[in-house]
């Protein structure tokens, strides 16, 4: 079939009724072509076909290398550059790992993993030693499915095809999916980063679900000054407003039973971020945050402060006027800057929104091609997340925390080597915002 | 005045009528307080108060370090790692520098600079030598304004305050603004990157203005398969549709005479990007692109492919089905992936949208504070861009091109060291899309 | 006891009779102070006192992160950026791991480890996939010694004291020694690097022992054009000359029974290195090599080409004159440049020498202090290498190979992106030197 | 002429009489072959043949990018990451630039340059601002010689041939030599680094000439506890001992009139280095120092502490015993460790020796080949350093200081983010060694 320019949509789906895609619509894609239809299991059946996860490094001062893969023995990370003498134990990490793990509720993938972590180096008698911290999480639920069909057909919107294009080897069947498990290392490292931030200046990194498919949490419903982790964790979809949480869960339930998937938006705030984090020019704080969260699987967009909506304002409407607060600190009355001006944090609440597409793996028939370039239909069977957003909450927090600790250390190295200038620079450890009770 | 939580808006201005901000609305901020009102010139008057621009480095293989500042003698960049024997001259760079320079039309800042560049090393007899390329652009229009007030009061939503918070020294009056001139080095380096991409695989990086304030170019008006640089450059606002271009220019003219400013959106596409660029995990192609463009001044958001709108689709609507095209290549019928799957380019058109806020410097009275923490009103006088978006077009192209060349070299080093696998990997230099006539 | 400036010797022991050190001489340090004498076991007895090994990253394009520690469950490395489709299996790595492992002969530490490696990701059906390669070597001989005294007293010339000075925590008892086991990850990664070099251009990295204590192999005894791995591996000390090998082994035997230790020199050559590797200015090839080998434990010096002896020549004696060889290639008649000119390889044999000090852990009484700053005497008991040099041979090869692959990839990315200039650049894969039969 | 293995000397000239090289000996290389003899001027005559200097970046946290070239308008550097509010002016840099500049005495090259530097950004009212510091030194003595022959024939032991092999373009005539001028940027940045070190902890970096050709300063003549800059600068060869200085100067004078060149050794010490600098594994302090100094032009070897001589000691002779000094600090009686144990500074004096080969450019006839692979004789005419070692002194100091500041910032970021442990870690700013009067 020839390429049709008209069928190429840019910046996606116009309306929310979802019927724009000529080919991908439910009516059209369930054609009966039994001879070329593959029943595609979601998880591998054989250890012979191994899935390779990637293990790169994030950060300059506080460096995290994740490793392991869905079908190997374990996953985890190595954290290099952690400050010494920080009280740390597995339980500090487990809280966030539990928020990330599969099978935590009916709206997540039923893969069963406890994701219990083990710290095998870098800790001595409950304190970090300054040498690398190695965190390991064993894989326990590897069903050993047969992956034969998967090794032939490219799953639409997965990493299958691009891995082959890049590496020229037919081995990486599940790049995209294995990444889901790869984020364990990020979440574990992020928990360490969050602890450092909390201890250093009462800084809190808190994310929640603000949109699931068509259910959008209106602005103003959540008060970022007082938002607590408890409010977010009070329901399985991680939306701090109980009413909207119900609607979101209902939306996921509908799509789940249809074998389809939906996406959404995670909002993340940073409370009591020290002023001065970030660098001019290429390493602006918003640039680092954008890279960090856009490296999570399934992300499609990032905005902070006024975001895309800010483009509809004039400068006089958009600018954040300064004032001096009751404690004599320079503050802004509004926060369209999202806590960042000129690439550097200004002490106000940092906020951002991250768009997640619907999970690519669905239990519905789709047209695709084999690696031998034969057109074919396939149905992925088995377990997948109907909506990745609730589990993405701790992932976003982790990436944001990793950026902040890295920038904090960069700032400390350069700007706190010699005594600060108290006229212009703020002493740390004075929280600007009322700290909520988070991971005490 | 005490901090008011209610006045803190998150993710900005809800509707497009612009009247949401209680404090920042035009009616309320022109209070008469003559004794504490500053007349703030936009540009400095004295060489004694120097502005320091930052000069960091971008890229790993193809490394660009920008340097210089608005008020020093010159600005420019050093490009490290450029392939040798590439035909290159100043005119290759000047085209894009002319698209970026101030004073190019009535809708840009009237600062007069020809921005004529000079290559002082790294070129011999019209060919790159492989050693660093140094590009210099002299500053010619430095008015020497008096910047005394500026050194006292923080301009709202500028980098003034955060530079002081970070560095503890009252010298960096115009961080944010000086960044505008800093982008010269980026645009020059980006022109080199674009030339490499064009020569290597016919890859084209093309950006245009798709929104100015409330004027939005509807989807589908621009055909990304055939879009040309000429269409974009046919008008001063750089929107390829003449009708919408007129509306955008009119919108800027209105705001310009009022001394206010507006923002907008730049759309950027990459045609004939080689498949296989980008890396799994932290260095995904979309993550690198997000960081690159979010490091430009005044950016507030980034999305690619289906973007934020994609969150309103189901998986079955969103997935891009594969097919085999008439040349035997694996393609996708739709492109909600935006040319990137699993963090790696798939050969389809890469597309993205970047949000720019309205310019912070405006010719209207605003409330602010001095560095001595005294509340004050100020009016910035002088020259500024009423809408930065038309000049941002070559900046976005430059950052995107820098990412692509860096990733191309990373890919070449790892995956082309040994012969490719022709069954799965595509030989380069076969453009997938009809190449438009760009920078021949 | 007061500090005595006079006792501080710089650049060590002048003559080879070893009697220069007033305090450290055997006669003076065996004073009888039983009440404060510690019996220091060389290896830990308790799992409660854990030793933390560091796990940093080496390389820019071919990146190796080592991890694990002597007393944890395993050691190993993660290799990021390896070219895909390289034939690779555990046996490729095991050869070098066996050359490095303890207990391989009577002149190495009697710790018993088979050091059997396992590749748990990055390989599929005998080929590398392009994603990270994870190599694990389990620790099997952990005796669980009591390390209580060690946690109190600083062992002279170990990392004990400096780890405490840096990290401020009393946990890292055996930094220096644990590093010995840390090199497993280096050697494993180096074996992969050597395979790439061999396959790419017939490049061979070969090291051997050229000095043990006072036994020095004279220049000219070994012919670097024809030297083979077999010659080196024909004896337990890894000196290719049988006669000198015997003398070296005898020297080690003498010192071994006395519980003392000796050092020596490892010479390393690179045959058929592609011309053009290395970069001008900071990343010169010799600078990268120097850093690489000087990061190995116990190294004290590095020289290449004419080395320190070259300082005794005049320019006219030292310069390597060019000529054209029988195959029409530009060569040098002599090789005082050591295969590197202007920081870039010239195709001649790269050669270097690395000095290793005598092992710090000895079975003799030494004066030291406790962490509570009490002066004390201690005797380390147990197992140690009387001379680390024979086992250092594969370590040096590994570090040199890692540098070369990293530089090869950097060079390939920059200079081979476009077709080479055949007039000046040499096509790869034409070995200049007769290749020996190494790791076929 | 066929390749002769026998003529390949490894690790250079055996004895100090200098007559080992069959081909390169003075007697044999002045053969009369007028038809193919080139008169090679040392400096270029035409601006058309430009020399490209490289401009890479050194350091991770304190980053220096040097730029410019011998024949462009200027040379210099950009320093990124400098702590803010450091008092700094051009005169701080000029002292070291004057020690490096050509024409400073009869034993250096007669090229006349004042090397007057200008800081064009990063300083405001005498204080660093935290943003990049740009240092520029104009070139004034460019004679514009004709470089035509040079563009044809490869100068022996220069970078001429390897640049062509790497880049495949015949433009880089004088890589090696242009590097000499490139070091201006290093020395300028090093002066900033030295000022930071001095201010932070009274740390001093001091180098001197300890060998010129056969004239070796015996150990013990210089007391490193009390050595001053004044002693070193009291003579033109920079040897603190007047008697040996005279001998060295005489040796240079002899070789200078013969148009030949000689090499030597620079010794460098660091006094009052804070304990704790450096990292375990790959980034050991000695590894970073080795890379830094081995990136200087003409270096052939590096050793620290006991160095190569330490290989002749036994462990019981070599180990540095600990004691507690009168101020209650843990010290070592001897310093064969060279101030570094386990890759981390221990507070003792860091010491190292760097070998420099004789300058490659000599005024004597040499055999070489043209770029067209024709064998030829050439004589370089004009100006060169008969012995580069006196001018290398500030270069070595600069590279060592850059490493230390980079490591200091890394250490401060990681280990001083939270309060130190006073039991094990030393508060900074307590000099261990009597500070000499250096660059007050």
What would you note in describing this structure?
Chains A, B, C, D: Its cofactor is FMNH2. Chains A, B, C, D: Pfam families: Chorismate_synt (PF01264). Chains A, B, C, D: Keywords: Amino-acid biosynthesis, Aromatic amino acid biosynthesis, Lyase. Chains A, B, C, D: Catalyzes the last common step of the biosynthesis of aromatic amino acids, produced via the shikimic acid pathway. Four copies of one chain form a homotetramer. With 440 residues, chain A is of the alpha+beta class. In chain A, 25% of the residues lie in helices and 20% in strands. In chain A, the strands form six sheets. In chain A, strands 2-3-4-8-5 form a five-stranded antiparallel β-sheet, covered by helices on one side. A five-stranded antiparallel β-sheet of chain A has the order 10-9-11-17-12. In chain A, a hairpin with a 2-residue loop joins strand 9 and strand 10 (215-216). In chain A, helix 2 (90-100) crosses helix 4 (175-201). The radius of gyration of chain A is 23 Å and the shape is globular. The interface between C and D is large, with 162 and 162 residues. Strand 12 (299-304) of chain C pairs antiparallel with strand 12 (299-304) of chain D.
């Amino acid at each position: 079939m020839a390429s049709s320019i008209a069928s190429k949509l840019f910046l996606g789906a116009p309306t929310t009724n979802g019927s724009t895609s000529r080919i991908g619509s439910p009516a059209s894609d369930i054609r009966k072509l039994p001879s070329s239809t593959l029943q595609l299991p979601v998880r591998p059946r054989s250890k012979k076909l191994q899935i390779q996860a990637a293990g790169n490094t994030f950060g300059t001062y506080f460096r995290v290398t994740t490793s392991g893969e869905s079908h190997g023995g374990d996953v985890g990370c190595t954290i290099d550059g952690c400050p010494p003498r920080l009280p740390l134990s597995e339980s500090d990490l487990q809280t966030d790992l539990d928020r990330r793990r599969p099978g935590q509720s009916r709206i997540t993938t039923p893969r069963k993993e406890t994701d219990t972590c083990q710290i095998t180096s870098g800790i001595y008698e409950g304190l970090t030693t300054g040498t690398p911290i190695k965190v390991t999480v064993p894989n326990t639920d590897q069903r050993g499915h047969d992956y034969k069909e998967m090794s032939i057909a490219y799953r639409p919107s997965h990493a299958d095809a691009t891995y082959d294009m890049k590496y020229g080897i037919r081995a990486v069947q599940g790049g995209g999916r294995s990444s889901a498990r790869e984020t364990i290392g990020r979440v574990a490292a992020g928990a360490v980063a969050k602890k450092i931030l909390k201890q250093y200046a009462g800084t809190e990194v808190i994310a929640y679900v603000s949109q699931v498919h068509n259910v959008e949490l209106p602005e103003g419903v959540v008060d970022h000054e007082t938002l607590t982790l408890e409010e977010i964790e009070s329901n399985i979809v991680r939306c701090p407003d109980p009413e909207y949480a119900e609607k979101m869960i209902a939306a996921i339930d509908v799509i789940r039973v249809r074998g389809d998937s939906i996406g959404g938006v995670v909002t993340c705030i940073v409370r009591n971020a020290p002023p001065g984090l970030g660098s001019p020019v290429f390493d602006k704080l918003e640039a680092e945050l954008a890279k960090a969260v856009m490296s999570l699987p399934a992300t499609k967009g990032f905005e902070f402060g006024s975001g895309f909506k800010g483009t509809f304002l004039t400068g006089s409407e958009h600018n954040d006027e300064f004032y001096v607060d009751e404690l004599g600190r320079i503050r802004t009355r509004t926060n369209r800057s999202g806590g960042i001006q000129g690439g550097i944090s200004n002490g106000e609440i940092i906020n951002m929104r991250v768009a997640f597409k619907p999970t690519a793996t669905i239990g519905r028939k789709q047209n695709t091609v084999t690696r031998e370039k034969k057109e074919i239909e396939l149905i992925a069977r088995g377990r997948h997340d109907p909506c990745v957003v609730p589990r993405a909450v701790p992932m976003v927090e982790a990436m944001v925390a990793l950026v902040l600790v890295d920038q904090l250390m960069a700032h400390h190295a350069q700007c706190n080597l010699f005594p600060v200038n108290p006229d212009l620079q703020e002493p740390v450890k004075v929280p600007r915002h009322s700290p909520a009770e988070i991971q005490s």
